[in-house]
Amino acid sequence: MHILLVEDESKLARFIQRGLETEGFSVEIAADGALGEKRARSDQFDLILLDVLLPKKDGFEILKTIRKAGLKTPVLMLTARSETQDIVSGLDSGADDYLTKPFVFEELLARIRSILRRGRQSQTQLKIADLQLDTVKHKATRNGTTIDLTAREYALLECLMRNHPKLVTRQHLAKEIWGFDFDPGTNIVDVYVNHLRKKIDHGFGKKLLHTERGQGYYIAHEEKPRKSR
Ligand code: CA
Predict the structure, then answer these.
(1) Would you say residue 39 has pLDDT above 80?
(2) Most buried residue, 89, 94, 156, 175, by CB count within 10 Å?
(3) CATH fold of 125-219, please?
(4) 80-138 pLDDT, tens digit each
(5) Which helix (H) or strand (E) holds 37?
């Protein structure tokens, strides 16, 4: 997850950056409004943390400009207490949430996670490498080629893609797709995953559907190195 932090108070910016990096995010800092807008428009970020009072261009102006330009990246505004009357206009301009300074880091983290979760749930186009899933039309394509899937295979693929790149256990898949508690004596999950694998991976070069032996499956750009036992 790649976050753009537009914040001119360098101490605060570095504090947020360090904290988020510890939590596994990568964070790029833009220290003024002009640079912040330029970087935001590059559309490389999963989330933008946007301060309001900034040199060169203020946060609300940036927000209006990028939304006008069609950018859909979620934005969390960081406002000072004195600016709370502006929050409504911020939300009207297309902010997803706001946080009043000073805040505790845990609160920031909780808001970020909640925004990212919401984004994932409402996402109708899932994409990993050249594999794409339209969750409205229930249609899968890889490298532009339509892949015919049965209803079960589709459900399996959507579940794996929504959880990407995390491992999904066979128990979880059984419950989610077939609605039953996992019986370790049955190999139905593995059989279906193998069908799915043939359809989405065979003939397409790079393998995206990986197996964690005895555990479950995951979709990712790369196979994870095995844990040492
Ligand atoms: Ca500021």
Answers:
(1) yes
(2) 156
(3) Arc Repressor Mutant, subunit A (1.10.10)
(4) 866 666 676 667 778 888 898 889 999 999 999 999 888 766 678 888 889 999 988 89
(5) helix 33-41
Domain with CATH 3.40.50.2300 in the chain: 2-122
User: From the CA of 186, how far away is ligand 1's center (Å)?
Assistant: 59
Residues with Cβ–ion distance below 5 A, ligand 1? 8, 51, 53
pLDDT at 164: 83
Residues of the chain with CATH 1.10.10.10: 125-219
CA of 35 to the centre of ligand 1 (A): 14
Position 229 scores a pLDDT of 37
- Distance (angstroms) between ligand 1 centre and the Cα of 39 equals 17
Distance 112 CA to ligand 1 centre (A): 19
State the distance from the centre of ligand 1 to the C-alpha of 41, rounded, in angstroms: 20
Provide the CB-side half-sphere exposure for 128 (13 A, CA). Answer: 21
- Quick one: pLDDT at residue 43? 80
Q: How far is the CA of 22 from the centre of ligand 1 (A)?
A: 24
Ligand 1 center–CA 51 separation, angstroms: 6
CA of 7 relative to ligand 1 center, distance in Å: 6
Q: Which residues of 99-127 are buried (b: 16+ CB within 10 A; e: fewer)?
A: beeeeeeeebbebbeebbeeeeeeeeebe
Superfamily of domain 2-122 in CATH is Response regulator (3.40.50.2300)
- Please say if the pLDDT value at position 212 is more than 90: yes
Question: How would residue 184 be classed by pLDDT, with cut points 50, 70 and 90?
Answer: low
Output the DSSP codes for 154-203.
HHHHHHHHHHTTS-EEHHHHIIIII-S---TT--HHHHHHHHHHHHHHTT
Ligand 1 geometric centre to CA of 119 (Å): 27
